[in-house]
Amino acid sequence: MAKILGIGNTVLDIVLRVPHALHDDEELRASQRHVQVGGNVSNSLYVLNQLGHETAICTTLGGDAEAKQLMNGLKQRQIDTSLVQRFIKGRTPTSYITLNAENGHRAIVHFRDLPELSFDHFAKTEIENYDWLHFEGRNIDNLKGMLNIAKTFLTHQPISLEVEKPRDGIEALLPQANVIFFSHHYASAKGFENGETLLKTMQAQLPNSRLICTWGAQGAWLCEAGSSIEHVAAERVSPVVDTLGAGDTFNAAVIHHLINGESLRSAVQQASKLAAQKCLQHGLDNLMQGAHTLKPIANIKQLSNAKTLVVEAENLGKSVVLIKYEDGVKAYINNCPHQDVPLNEAYKIDVNPFEKTMKCSVHDAFFRIEDGVCIEGPCWDEALEAVEIRVEDNGDIYAV
After folding, report:
1. pTM score, two decimals?
2. What is the tens place of the pLDDT at every residue in 68-85?
3. Residues 248/43, Cβ–Cβ less than 8 Å
4. Which domain holds residue 187?
5. Tell me: the pLDDT tens digits for 222-248?
6. How far apart are CA 138 and CA 162, in angstroms?
7. Residue 291, pLDDT score
8. What is the CATH number for 358?
């Protein structure tokens, strides 16, 4: 186990799960809303905790109610908050995130009205007590002094730096880090076609650093100090459930495996696997509890508009009712809201393809296939619980 200090932003994420990407002038209803701790560094520290390390964060928080939520969330993640810099004025940084149910991708809108971490606050930190320092590549004016202190006072502890976006002056700070994570967003903004071309340029400027550039489905490029550039293919992920935090998971896993003495290539390979595993689940909780590989619950060839198919969804731990509806598939938890019994408790679920209804076998409640609302029977106007599903090109259906 290592003691790891992360320096960067902490953000309140408000995640809305939507059926598809939002278009201009479109009004869209979210199926789920979730509020959680966010921010690149805090996410990476949470993953590192799950990998068995002791972590602390150096960040800023305000004095509003949202800041209390973040502080409680960090403590629940078992991240040491003793180095947090508090401000009375300013609002908690917030990210409004739409999570696309079609492909697991996300769009993010940030709001920030809070001072950045100050150099003076960081300078009081006893950084020599930590085994690894990980910086987020932002707050450039103060980051320069922070990296100088770290480089001056640390004797053997590695310093890693995440370069997610192009920021004025950040290139001058790169030689201060031992391990540098470049994102494809940064590389693309700088005019590079892939991670290899970026690292060729950076390698000449940073001959003593370990360099990594991730590029989504194209995989990752890496080079040890003084060695040739290598490529690691991306892990196949199907279905993609949630990409939010995958990059932070990757960074954490690389740090973990380097701490354990593995080569950079091995660390990147293992990190790619963990990042892929993260994409198969919502959020970062319980990331280490075995593989989260989803299994299809059915294939669309098994379905029709005239009858239901009842299957078990292992990842949900529940029985699910599937039926074709127009050009798609509808899925509901197999539970009647009248008396909390399966719809097929007495016999099969009757379907009226003309009225487009399903009937509970116990007390004859009729539910619209379209939205699961009861339109006749003892639980009138109540609704079946919908299940988010994804249908792959080969017809496999996943409950997500």
Report:
1. 0.78
2. 999 999 999 999 999 999
3. yes
4. 3-279
5. 999 889 999 999 988 877 888 889 999
6. 9
7. 46
8. 2.102.10.10
